[in-house]
Amino acid sequence: MIDDPDSIMKCNNKVYTAELLARHNIPTPKTLVVHRDNVQRIIPELALPCVLKQPDSSFSVGVVKVESEAELYDKGYALLEKSELIIAQEYLPSAFDWRVGIIDRRPLFAARYYMAPGHWQIIRHDHHGRYVEGPTEAVSLGETPVEVVELALRAANLFGDGFYGVDIKQVGNRCYVIEVNDNPNVDAGNEDGVLKDALYREVMGVFVRRIDERKRGGSQ
To answer: Which residue from 185, 43, 178 is spatially nearest to 121, judged by alpha carbons?
Structure first.
C-alpha cells in the first residue's frame, strides 16, 4: 500500500471527492450532493435516468441507477437511511470507462474497462452475492487520448502523490472524471497487459525510494 491514510480517506468519501473536483474545475457528470431536504432537486437538475451513490461505495456496490420518479424516491431514501448525504449524478452511458493509473504524480498505465454484459456498470452483482465483470483491455499510454491522461493526472494530483486509479468516461469529444480510487487493482493479464513486469518494477521502485527517504529522514 502506497497511499497515506489521509489520501485513502479522501478517495473513499464520494462527497468529499465531488466537492474537491468541483472546486478545482475538474469536469465530472452533473453532480448534486443530496440530503433528505433536497431530493426533489434531482430530477430538475439531473434528469432521469440518473445514478445514486453512497459516500463510501466501491466496486459498484452502493451505486444504483434510477429510471423513474418512484424509483428515485424509493432507492434514494433507502440510501439516506444509511448516510446523511449521498451523491446523485447525471447518467452518461458508454461502452467502457478509461482507467488511468497514476503513481508518484506520473501516469503509469491505461486500460479500457468494458461494461459487464447487458449491464450499465463494469461489475454486475446479483442477489446471491455473485458478480460478473466486463473485460479489461490494457492500452499503451501513447495510444491513450492525451486529454484522458492529462485529466487523470490533474484529478489524482489533488489527492496526493500516491498510487491512484482514475476512472474517466469519454463521451464524444468530452471527458469526465467518474472516480479517483486509492491503491487500485493491478491484476495479471489485465492492467499489466502492456507493461508486463515493468509495471510491477515501477511500483516497487516507488516503494523502495520512499522507504529509503524515510530512513534517511529518520537518521538526521
So the answer is: 178
Count of beta carbons in the 10 Å neighbourhood of residue 171 = 11
- Give the other-Cβ count within 10 Å of 13's Cβ: 15
The answer to whether residue 3 scores a pLDDT higher than 60 is no
Closest CA to 168 of 101, 103, 88, 116: 101
Sign for the pseudo-dihedral over CA of 19, 79, 73, 125 = positive
Per-residue confidence (pLDDT) for residue 10, from 0 to 100: 85
Question: Tell me, what's the pLDDT at 56?
Answer: 86
User: What are the two backbone dihedrals, phi and then psi, of residue 158, each rounded to the nearest 5 degrees?
Assistant: -70, -20
Q: How many CB atoms lie within 10 A of CB 160?
A: 19
Task: Sheet with 136-139: list strands edge to edge.
Answer: 136-139, 106-114, 96-103, 163-171, 174-182
Q: Which domains does the chain have, with CATH numbers?
A: 94-214 (3.30.470.20)
Show the cell assigned to 171.
463521451
Grid cell listed for 168:
474517466
The amino acid that residue 23 corresponds to is R
Q: What is the DSSP letter of 212?
A: H
pTM check: above 0.90: yes
| DSSP assignment letter at 165 | E
Alpha-carbon distance of 138 to 109, in angstroms, equals: 8
Q: Residue 173 pLDDT more than 70?
A: yes
